[in-house]
Amino acid sequence: MSAANQLYQDVILDHNRKPRNFGKLAAASHQAEGLNPLCGDHIWVYLRLKDAQVDAIGFDGQSCAICKASASMMTHAVKGKSVTAAEELAQEFRDMALGRLDPESAEHHLGRLKVFAGVRDLPTRVKCAILPWHTLHAALNAVAQASTEGEDDPVPGSGVEQPGHA
Ligand code: ZN
Q1: Which residues lie at CB < 5 A from ion ligand 1?
Q2: How many degrees, rounded to 5, is the angle at CA 141 between CA 137 and CA 143?
Q3: How far is the CA of 44 from the centre of ligand 1 (A)?
């Protein structure tokens, strides 16, 4: 196993064992529900925005290990950031997961989130990793629900066939 893969495995395990900011946020000002029918991930992201900053953030729901680790790291990464910086990070994460941003060469703010770069080679897991960020984006924009299927799918043309459409 490569060093990058080992780090990825360690991070996923760590965040599943001890998810950060897990649980419904008291007095959330914004929230959104995220669905990934492909895998069955179903999460909620809660935000408390104050002065255009992410004052507090939490998540809960049922999801696979990749989605949960991504959500956990996301909450840690955007807490205390401005809404603009959080949106920028969400865009960078989605670009990285889709292979549009090379974390080794491009300018970005991803930091430890770089461990998710490998999902770009795993089409069935891309949506799992992206779902929390997609849901964060929805919550920031006061959209009640985000889905990785349908019109707001952040992964157009991913080549992942839906059951029954193959
Ligand atoms: Zn999943």
Answers
A1: 39, 41, 64, 67, 128
A2: 90
A3: 14
Domain locations in the chain as residue ranges:
3-150
Fold of 3-150: Sufe protein. Chain: A (3.90.1010)
Burial 26-61 (b: 16+ CB within 10 A, else e): eebebbbbbbbebbebbbbbbbbbeeebbebbbbbb
> Cα separation of 49 and 46, whole Å?
10
pTM: 0.89
- 141: CA distance to ligand 1 center in Å? 23
User: What pLDDT, in 10s, does the model give residues 60-77?
Assistant: 999 999 999 999 999 999
What is the CA(138)–ligand 1 centre distance, in A?
18
Whether the pLDDT of residue 157 is over 60: the answer is no
